[in-house]
Amino acid sequence: MNNVKEEFSDLAYIDVKSENPYDLFKEWYKEACLFSTAMPNALCLATVSKDMQVSARHLVLRRIEDDGFVIYTDNRSRKTRELEEVPTAAMCFLWAYLNDKGQRVARQHRIQNCSQSHRVLLREGHADRRQDPVREGRSVMPVDVQENRRLRNYNDMQTQITLFLCFFL
Fold it and tell me: What range(s) does the Pyridoxamine 5'-phosphate oxidase N-terminal domain occupy (predicted)?
């Protein structure tokens, strides 16, 4: 840890140009995408189980919509189950990079209680955006978890295999 430099530009300074925190996020995200060599779309999502056990994991932001964030997940995943059981979550983005002036920039954007108004959406037509899990050799059990029934065909499975978690502000 002695080799870590702690010279970051304006770590505590935030130039607020809008009263909407979503505008600030979009501004910072755009800058992080421009200057960061890492994954600016990586985020940490924390959920809590019905037994009040906190669980955090890193995910990838797939896109930003006008009123929220979209990530993909398997509808059988732990995070999906926890969001259904306890509809509260927090997301955190961390960006560290050199800006166009050569200054070190470190920023984080935290969104808390984001799933109180979240909607979990199943959308058709998104399967082509992900790699085919069957072609990759991963085992996929074609079961519709919500209705606990066998799916009729591969297209049904493709529709059910991925959830869009949309966190609306």
Answer: 39-108
